[in-house]
Amino acid sequence: MPRTLEDDKLLTAKQAAALMAMTTNGLSQQRFNGTGPQFVRFGVHTIRYWQSDIQTWLNGRIRTCTLEDHK
Predict the structure, then answer these.
(1) In which domain of life is the source organism classified (predicted)?
(2) Which region, left, alpha or beta, applies to residue 21 given φ > 0 means left and ψ of -120 to 50 means alpha?
């Protein structure tokens, strides 16, 4: 089902980076590498993130042991 602005919130890269306690440069690098949360591109320089996608991405990063990343 498509998301709407009534259900979710679109965030700028600056807002998304602040929510994840990282820099906008770090978020940009993750976007370039395909390792960060999903994003929406409206134009060459206009990127937005659904807040729910950030939460989903963060939840997928939860670990209880550093060895879990090497399995």
Answers:
(1) Bacteria
(2) left
Provide the terminal-to-terminal Cα distance of the chain, rounded to the nearest Å. 33
Scan for tokens 């089902």, then name that residue: 1
Buried b (16+ CB within 10 A) or exposed e, 32-59: eeeebbebeeeeeeebebbbebbeebee
Question: Model pTM?
Answer: 0.82
What is the predicted pLDDT for the residue at 63?
A: 87
Which has the minimum average pLDDT: 11-15, 22-26, 57-61? 57-61
What is the amino acid identity at position 46?
T
Q: How far apart are CA 12 and CA 9, in angstroms?
A: 10
